[in-house]
Automatic annotation (TrEMBL):
Transmembrane segments: none
Pfam families reported in the protein's UniProt record: Methyltransf_11
Methyltransferase type domain: residues covered: 80-183
GO terms of molecular function: S-adenosylmethionine-dependent methyltransferase activity
Annotated region described as Disordered, given as residue ranges: 1-20
Source taxon at top rank: Eukaryota
Protein name: Methyltransferase type 11 domain-containing protein
Organism: Amblyomma americanum (Lone star tick)
Coiled coil: none
InterPro entries per UniProt: Methyltransf_11, SAM-dependent_MTases_sf
Amino acid sequence: MSTSAAVNEDGNSAPAPGEHRDTYGVAKCVEMYDEAIAPVAPGVAALLDLFQPAFLHSTGFLHTNQGTGDSYARHRSQFIDVGCGSGSFTLKYLLPRLPSWCSKLVGVDNSEAMLKFAREKRSDPKIEYRNLDLLSDQDVERFVLAEGHFQMVYSFSALHWIADHRHALKNLETLMAPGGECFLLFSSDLVVFDVFTAMISSPRWEKYSGVLLQVLPETRNMVDVTSLRSHLRNVVNATNLMPLACEVFRVTGDTGVNKATTLDFLCLLNPVYPLLKEEEKAELRTFTEDVLQDFRKRRSERAIKDYKCLVIHAYKPRQ
């Protein structure tokens, strides 16, 4: 999922309702992103398989407790993948795992560049790709009015781009039908966040702190599993959802971006990058390269490849 920020004359963040900046607006970045997630996707799918037997729609709970209403009839069930990005995971891994009675899968993202790629290269008759800004309450409410609620809300590798997980989960709750559930999977930290943190501490780049803080989640400073689990529980408790699982897994693996293009990819991922003039982009590239070199000195190769995967599985009680 792409980041959202408007910038005022001083370069600081100035959020504007309904307005967001497309981090993935460069086609080159979309292609790199699609390559990067390819080696990681099987591990994410394995975690999905691990939890699949516990999903309420798999156990029969979703339909045996539906009361007299027909909103949960199987022929009307629709699922949603929030932060679908390029659509690769949605098409190749999520769609084949959905129950046959799921009538529609909607993939949403706030990047039109990502959605264009998904519609052109990751299409399927059962998938609809739509634009949705998860952090805009009005956008989410309008979306529900137009599309209805969803019996299952998924999100894979997207929520780590959002600083306020509580806000995000409250809007995910809005998307959920009463009795529906959500399965959310995201990372605790990313290498590129070291670059963002260094920029905030740098006299040269600190004026963009407002933009960068919007994509730095609390979890990046949490290293132990206990703190991470506690964070996940607190996020769920800030909503009306009932937690089914709040877990932390260690996942090992490289991204599909080769070392020669890693620097380009990390620069394109930076929400500040599209705000800069060409000469400033060259400066940012040099700065990013220096941070990465320092990062490699401070952390072993094993630490670079290992990251913690966070999982929230919850359901929305019927009123």
